[in-house]
User: Which sequence fits this backbone?
């Protein structure tokens, strides 16, 4: 079965996504999810635009988002299996989770290419 | 091929509410929902930044709305849980070795060579595993360094 062969790759993506999420996300949520929208910090737009459009930032953002999506898909898949006892629906759940991550990755690629 | 007919005791869908550790485990797994949420949030933000200052301001106004703010506060709690549990598990998933902590062990034995007893020695290095506490601590140092760098980069 093809699914068996890609399972190690999915675990690798899960693992990589777990590491980058653990290291990058707390500060990103604090800054962009709370402090900046709520007006506690106000970075200059032009500076922010310059940082985000740098090729290295785009590459890092793409890698970060893709890993986050596959990490999340993998973990959520097992949460549904075990948490809600849905092993009978294994195939549709897997298709939905990884399909979503794949679509999101394509969207992320388009976004970083067209900043 | 027919399915196995072994009896399997049915498990309640609410099994994870029965023990504190089960509950924490499920909360940890549910952090995945917020990782996905923030991936989407970041994508929309980067898209908005690319489209100009007005669209960036519009995004930030949306992000400041009570619903989105509450989601992000909850997300922060789940992501901190993810970070703490992930760092705590690393030493169990990975053995970090360092030559600094290892020591030499010498085993001596007399062996007979051409009718004469001569001493022979085997020297091996053992140990050197970095203690779990140090692995965890170094990850927190990495977290602090990365966070400081991102804050510096964003705020200029």
Assistant:
């Amino acid at each position: 079965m093809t699914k068996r062969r890609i399972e190690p790759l999915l675990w690798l993506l899960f693992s990589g996504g777990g590491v980058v999420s653990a290291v990058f996300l707390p500060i990103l949520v604090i800054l962009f999810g709370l402090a900046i929208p709520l007006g506690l910090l106000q970075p200059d737009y032009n500076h922010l635009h310059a940082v985000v459009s740098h090729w290295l930032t785009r590459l890092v953002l793409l890698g970060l988002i893709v890993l986050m999506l596959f990490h999340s898909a993998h973990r959520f898949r097992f949460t549904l299996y075990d948490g809600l006892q849905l092993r009978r629906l294994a195939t549709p759940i897997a298709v939905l989770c990884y399909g979503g991550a794949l679509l999101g990755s394509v969207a992320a690629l388009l976004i970083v290419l067209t900043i | 091929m027919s399915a196995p007919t072994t009896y399997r005791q049915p498990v309640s869908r609410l099994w994870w509410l029965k023990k504190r550790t089960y509950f924490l485990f499920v909360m940890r797994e549910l952090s995945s929902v917020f990782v996905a949420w923030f991936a989407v949030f970041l994508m929309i933000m980067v898209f908005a930044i690319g489209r100009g200052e007005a669209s960036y301001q519009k995004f930030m106004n949306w992000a400041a709305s009570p619903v989105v703010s509450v989601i992000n506060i909850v997300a922060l709690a789940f992501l901190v849980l993810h970070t703490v549990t992930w760092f705590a598990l690393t030493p169990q998933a990975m053995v970090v070795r360092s030559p600094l902590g290892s020591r030499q062990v010498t085993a001596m034995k007399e062996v007979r060579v051409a009718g004469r007893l001569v001493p022979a020695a085997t020297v091996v290095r053992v140990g050197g595993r970095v203690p779990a506490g140090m692995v965890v601590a170094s990850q927190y140092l990495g977290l602090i360094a990365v966070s400081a760098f991102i804050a510096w980069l964003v705020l200029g």
Remarks:
- Chain A touches chain B through 55 residues (CB under 8 Å).
